[in-house]
Write a structure and sequence with these properties.
Length: 577
Amino acid sequence: MEKKGRDYWKRNLATWKDVPNPALAAVDLDLDLDPARHWLRDRGTYELVNDKATPLRQLALTGGFHWRKVRWTLDGRSYKPEDRSGLYVFTLPSPLPPGGHARIGFDLEATLPAGISKNGGNAREFVLPSGVVLTSFEPTFVPVLGYMEPIGRKKDENDYETRVYPDDFYLGPTDASFGSNSPFTTRIRISGPAAYTWNSVGTRTSDEVHGGRRTTVWQSDHPVRFFNVVGGHWAVSRGAGTAIYYHPGHPYNIPEMQRALAAARRYYAEWFHPYPWRELKISEFPGLAGYAQGFPTDISFSEGIGFLTKPDFQTNAVFLVTAHESAHQWWGNLLTPGKGPGGDLLSEGMSHFSTMLLMQQVLGEGARIELAKRIEERYGERRRADAERPLVKIDGSHNGDETVTYDKGGWVFWMLLEHMGRERALAGLRAFIRQYENGPDYPVLQDFVAAMRPFAPDPAAYDAFVHQWFFEVVAPEYRLDRVVKRRLPGGTWQTDARVRNAGTGRMPIEVAAVAGERFDKQGKPLAAYWETRRTVVLGPGQAAAVTFQSAFEPQRLLVDPDARVLQLARKLALARL
């Protein structure tokens, strides 16, 4: 398999790496599954449309190395494409003009997995007695449009530097970073043993059992850009427009997941864009891999990162992952980012930001603060301080890019909302999705910045914020010293201190003198908590004196009590009195 991947890479990289692909207009599949034998058969058609400005003479699709008995058709007639080590190239009788359509059919069988892996590890897609997971991101059961650069590529072995994009690369039409370049319709018919439930994207239009086999048909009730198939032996928990399909032995977190799923559907629709599909569901799969993916209407969700997780106030992973993956219905599905630096932040960073908003709405400010501190801590631990690039330059190719994309990205979007004001920022996000949801130009961060600016109450202040957080690398780091507490005549208290920014960036920051605990173990506010606050604005290396007078005796001084400013080493921005 390694050799096949390497042959695919060597044979096609130079010729097919940057060749434009058509877009999908419609997908029609008939999928037969036999989990006991790890076997599948797929017969389907892709309706393709040339969404480019110039004619296309050839079409290329990537197939799976595990496929057998592969047959193809072109516009209804049998066709034998050139097999370039797994890249199937179709030369059209006449070039496909802009707006022109072509229909490619395929019929194949596969065993997945065919055996065991060399060293264990994640199996992201499989057909097994314990469950089935298949996606359109990889050529496991359907072909993928165009050449797939990651296949066969080995780091540090005949590798090459990643593409350097010019600063203005985003001007003009930008292709989608994943999935089809335009939304398409789907009809997916799945047949397998009757004991299984078969899920996919869209709406289930039929479900019949004959001769021990269940046949289920799913059709898109709103266009999609990618799709999946998930099967299992499930119980189901239903809510208002939501459903969770889960292993009957894993009921522990279903109420919390259902709460997050229902809240996501309601509030994300209010904040960002109306939810265009009929149902939002989760499909559990065995923990052969630990991930979740937010396909339109059908979130595939590993048992190990939600169903079998013990949640608590400080690390509510059950709510977090459910909220994050639900957010991809908007940030990834409705709003697909453009291909290039900064694009993925509009999917993953925005989903982290949305999770912070939802936690605040449903679980309270205490839960939002704890989530913010956890992802801030992860950013501080995983960033590459010597090589970190601005958000607009992040393309996933460098060490440290992941935490910047998810954690710093989510934090910066949160700070932008606070900077602009909640209602103005949400209005800007709604307009941003409306502007870009249907292409053909897909946005990156520079497009986002431009789209949000008209909603800023102070354009000059907006520009200053955006410049340092999107186009530079800044990381504030606050310290408290010269702390003195004394009791005044009459029983009041005065506390003096100096707060210093030992990092970079310039932000207004609150400092609080507090006594008691603010939240209980469930994140609920406690009555026996007192505080008084001061606000200072500090640039790199700057310091300011702060004085607090209070009727209570302060026990602690802390910087940024509400977790509103991303910073490094927050635990050191605390003084106990």
